[in-house]
């Protein structure tokens, strides 16, 4: 005989599905917030590194009367590159930044915190607004004409990292 007064200690399938879907929704919201915070932290680290490099470049210039050499003449050198000259450009970047390390102005060669944006260096030489330029791409900030602390010396539409167009490049210009 069926006992109607019997206590059933368990959950129905519907109750379990509702709880699982709520947990899934909450975890998706938390993971999205975590990714946003991670991007902002990466951008903050990039800005701090660029400020340190800017100071190191100026101290190097005061000591030597020049900026570190651009060892890949006519092109930018980056810690990460996506073209056929990856090895040569990365080696040139390391050599340029090693000048700052050897002089005692940086503790180590700066490396980008992740693959979404490289650190790039280019020495335009004396007699221009850019001088020695150090740039990176912001990961989580929207495109801007002027991030606080950055420079935009090149005219809009030019083939330069730091144009006056909306873009995600964070630039440090170190004129002579």
Describe this structure in words.
- It is built from 2 helices and 4 strands; from the N terminus they run αβαβββ.
- With 176 residues, the protein is α+β, with helices and mostly antiparallel strands.
- It has a domain at 65-176.
- It has a 4-stranded antiparallel sheet, covered by helices on one side.
- The radius of gyration is 25 Å and the shape is elongated.
- The mean pLDDT is 84.
Helix and strand arrangement:
Elements: H1 13-64, E1 77-78, H2 86-102, E2 120-123, E3 132-137, E4 169-174
Antiparallel strand pairs: 1-2, 2-3, 3-4
Helix content bin? 25-40%
In whole angstroms, the N-to-C terminal distance is: 97 Å
State which percent range the strand residues make up. 5-15%
- Unreliable stretches, pLDDT < 50, 5 or more residues? none
Largest sheet: 4 strands, antiparallel
Tally of contiguous helical segments: 2
Based on CA atoms alone, the radius of gyration comes out at 25 Å
Instruction: Count every beta strand, where a strand is a DSSP E run of 2 or more residues.
Output: 4
- Structural class, by secondary structure, is alpha+beta
Write down the overall geometry. elongated
Q: If strands are numbered along the chain, what order do they take across the biggest sheet?
A: 1-2-3-4
Q: N-to-C SSE series?
A: HEHEEE
Question: Mean pLDDT, nearest integer?
Answer: 84
């Amino acid at each position: 005989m069926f006992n109607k007064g019997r206590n059933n200690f368990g959950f129905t399938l519907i109750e379990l599905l509702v709880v699982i879907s709520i947990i899934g929704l909450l975890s998706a919201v938390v993971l999205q917030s975590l990714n946003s915070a991670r991007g902002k932290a990466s951008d903050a680290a990039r800005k701090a590194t660029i400020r340190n490099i800017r100071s190191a470049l100026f101290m190097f210039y005061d000591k030597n009367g020049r900026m570190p050499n651009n060892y890949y003449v006519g092109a930018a050198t980056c810690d990460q590159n996506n073209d056929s000259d990856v090895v040569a450009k990365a080696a040139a970047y390391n050599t340029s930044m090693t000048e700052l390390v050897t002089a005692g102005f940086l503790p180590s060669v700066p490396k980008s915190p992740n693959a979404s944006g490289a650190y790039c260096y280019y020495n335009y030489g004396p007699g221009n607004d850019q001088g020695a330029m150090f740039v990176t791409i912001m990961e989580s900030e929207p495109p801007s004409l002027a991030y606080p602390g950055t420079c935009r010396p090149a005219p809009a539409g030019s083939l330069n990292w730091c144009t006056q167009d909306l873009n995600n490049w964070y630039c440090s210009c170190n004129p002579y």
